[in-house]
Amino acid sequence: IWRDFMLTINKDILNTKTMVKISVLGAISFVLMYFKFPVAWIAPPFLKMDISDIPSLLGAFALGPLAGVLIQLLKNILNLIFEGTTTAGVGEFVNFFSGSVFAVIASVIYFRNKNFKNAVIGLIAGIIAMTAIMAISNYYFIFPLYAKVFGIPIEKLVEMGASITNKVVDFKTLIIYTVVPFNLLKGFLTALITIIIYKRLSPILHK
Fold this sequence. Notes:
Helices cover 75% and strands 2% of the residues. By secondary structure, it is an all-alpha fold.
């Protein structure tokens, strides 16, 4: 993936027009972070769905994987500046890293042969990678940090998950049966919208 990433980087990524596009997409991505909604039938209320990864995927498909990474970086920097953080920046870093992995994997596979099939394969691979990263980071970092900062015992979070599905009996099953499905759904929704709108926006992004 790293070799393909380096090969597919747009050499003109730093030209003025491209940086303007990246800046606009990053700003849109930041705004989309504010439109969060719960999915109570699959995840506890503290997990909120958003579609802020769409601009990153659009940019990565049109301008190359590095553009997707830069859009994710700009989104999270703006979020830190205007909304602040409750996780000492850890949550923002995880959001940046997982979103970047999603965009890079999807676009690298797409760039091998730009067709609908590769776009779908790339998005599926990106969803799986993002879901795995979020599961690991939530288990080892995010949930324990939230519990410590807000004084909420991990057991209380487990109880919230157990109220959704009786498969949740401990912290590990909380991750498996709520966090994993949540991120799979988020990834699928993001990928679906990206597929639907990319061809329509592609001429503008390539102009």
